[in-house]
Amino acid sequence: MVDIFVYIIFIFIIKTNGFLFDDKEDLILLPSVAFRDHSKISSTNWIVSNQGWYYEEDPLQAKVMEKILEKTIEKDFDINRIKLFTADGQENKKVCIDNFNQSICTHTDHEGRIKNTFQISKNEIDQLIQSDINGTKILYQQSVFNKNIRTIGEIYLCDDNGITFISDIDDTIKVTGVTSSTETLMNTFTGSYKSVLGMSDIYQYWQKKYNATFAYLTASPDQLYPFLREFINREKFPLGSFHMRHFTWFDTNFISFFMSNNYIENPDIYASIYMKYPNRIGKIFIRKYKNDTIGQQRLEQIFNNIPQEN
User: Fold this and answer.
1) Long-range contacts of 147-152 (CB under 8 A, 24+ apart)
2) Is 296 domain-assigned?
3) What's the domain count of the chain?
4) Where is the Phosphatidate phosphatase APP1 catalytic domain (predicted)?
């Protein structure tokens, strides 16, 4: 009976800790993309996407998660990464881009996510455009209505002609250990992220040779974006747009991400995309584990009908 009473108190504290702590609210904006509008023959507009997450931290839940992970894996975990997984998304909140010619506002969804698509004119793009080694982009400022919360976001321009490298992150450019749930947990929540040897150099080479843009497509959740961005900067990978999932500590997708083998399906996905758009895909590169004979045979079977280079 005492155990049940303590458990009820514990749950009550977790559910009501907003009254006990001054929880931090913040806004994360993921780099996104813009394409030329071809829906009208005479249009010179761009179709722009804006993505992010507005959240409130929950320090007590973060501490509980930290202790559970440390007990399970017997490692010290980075509390800053954990905080974003136990944070609460702020539902139906008004957020506005306020540095364009006119404000562009939307509301967060039930998870606190921002997923907005809109058009802006070529003239306005030309006023905002910035070019550097990472390609052509525009910067925007997004704010939360009636809150002193503002964040700068990036939108990369993908023109009709050019080369874009669409890259996975886990075990492609960052050591994650997706074949082991324990390794994945440790490499996600502890220590500094480690780069796969040689990948930064080859990405920089492709960027310079082809004047290429980059898009990072990953099953990792967007709560990891700030730490992945730090990794990308530190290891000198080209910057680009990020396309990520979203789930929290209490979401079933949290378990499936760390316990599943979805990475095995990736080659099938790449092959099916090539078969659908053969004229738009130049090459497919897949990192293979050393001495993985079974994996090699599987790749040969999947890509049997796709041209290969030796």
Assistant:
1) 147/25, 149/25, 149/26, 149/27, 149/54, 150/27, 151/26, 151/27, 151/28, 151/29, 151/52, 152/29
2) no
3) 1
4) 163-259
